[in-house]
Amino acid sequence: MHKRVWAVSEDIPGTKWKEVFERCWDGYRAWFLREGLTARPTYLESVRALRKFMPELLPTYEQIVDLAGGGDITARFLSLYRPTPYMSGCSQAVWGRRPYPALIRNYDYNPSLWDATMLHSTWNGRRVIAMTDCVWGVLDGVSEAGLAVSLAFGGRRVVGDGFGIPLVLRYVLEFADSLREAVRMVRRIPSHMTYNVTIVDRRGRTRTIHVSPDRRPVVTRQLVATNHQLPIEWTEYVKATQSVEREEYLQLYLRNRSERKNQFVDRFLKPPVYAARFEKGWGTLYTAMYEPMSGFAALRWPAHILEQSLSSFRETTLDIHLGAPSTQAGSDIMNTGSAG
After folding, report:
1. What is the pTM for the complete model shown?
2. Are 84 and 32 in contact (CB under 8 A)?
3. N or C: fewer beta carbons within 10 Å in the chain?
4. What is the 3-state secondary structure (H, E, C) of 42-87?
5. Is 246 helix (H, G, I), strand (E, B) or coil?
């Protein structure tokens, strides 16, 4: 399976953001309406929730709604308030050793609902690089404030009142000045599903927050997170996605003092962490690495690498092949930034 990945730079939402929206909208519209429009909150409910929990995002929200045409369905979708439930299977780990601590993660999902966009922006006076979801949410990314974030589905069926977690991560990257403030935001803003959110700062200090719509967030210092929380509830899902095996595999190599960062990143391109069930609509869409100290960001596939940084970002496209890992990992390198 082949996909095109876009690296886009635009300080404030404009024509380039609109192009991303138009490219993704048909798929997202079908997804958003899958349970029927009445299953989703009204526009007024959505705006009130945004104003209550993330008021600083409202000006950007209004900008993108206008760019997207201003329709009712579009505005409700872009609020990411109580969106259509969905699951992903991801692995994330923090390499805490100096001089450049890093957040590394795999994003496993259905390729048909993937923005495939790395967006470099300065929407609220702060430079951010993020892989987008739902066109303006964040799957993972890094900010000029020296914070990197990522998410993983938490392995529980429960769905409740709250936001899609990608919008919460956008809020963190746009407005959090410190790890403590970022954690406070994630704890305060309700999530409509269960997730494991990992945050690391430029010194390598790490928090992984287990969020759920039906219980209080749990803040941990764990360096590895996959697709379960304790106690394990949805055993069939955890077993099918090898969540425990992936966690133990990454912990094993993270504890190995002879392991080097590049070796550890390579682990994400191999089983059991790398998934290649694309014929069934599920697999590892990319491996990301972020260094909050330097602002460096890299995307990797078995045969491609795309490197960028907050201070040196170049717009480009990259045609990738999604499939089983080969022995030629990283053979096609597009170096557009520097880790410093």
Report:
1. 0.94
2. yes
3. N
4. CHHHHHHHHHHHCHHHHHHHHHHHHHCCCCHHHHHHHCCECCCCCC
5. helix
Provide the number of structural domains found in the chain.
Answer: 1
Asked whether residue 303 is domain-assigned, the answer is yes
Contact indicator for 60, 126 with CB cutoff of 8 Å: no
Question: Which H or E run includes 298?
Answer: strand 296-301
Question: What is the rounded average pLDDT of the residues 77-103?
Answer: 94
Percent of the chain with pLDDT over 90: 88
Position 91 in a domain:
yes
Residue 22 has pLDDT above 60, yes or no: yes
Report in angstroms the alpha-carbon separations of 269 from 104, 174, 210, 246: 11, 30, 25, 12
327 vs 340: CA distance, rounded Å: 28
CATH of the domain at 101: 3.60.60.10
Strands, E assignment, 26-184:
91-95, 102-109, 117-121, 128-133, 137-143, 147-153
Specify burial of residue 327 (Cβ count, 10 A radius: 0-12, 13-18, 19+): exposed
Residue 279 pLDDT level (bands cut at 50, 70, 90):
confident
235: its two tokens: 């055993």
Q: Closest Cα to residue 189, out of 137, 267, 245?
A: 137
Neighbour tally for 110: CB within 10 Å: 17
Write out the residue range of the structural domain in which residue 114 sits. 2-11+86-335
Residue entry with tokens 């599920």: 282
Terminal CA-CA length for the chain: 34
pLDDT band with cut points at 50, 70 and 90 for residue 330 = very low
- Assigned domain for 81 exists: no
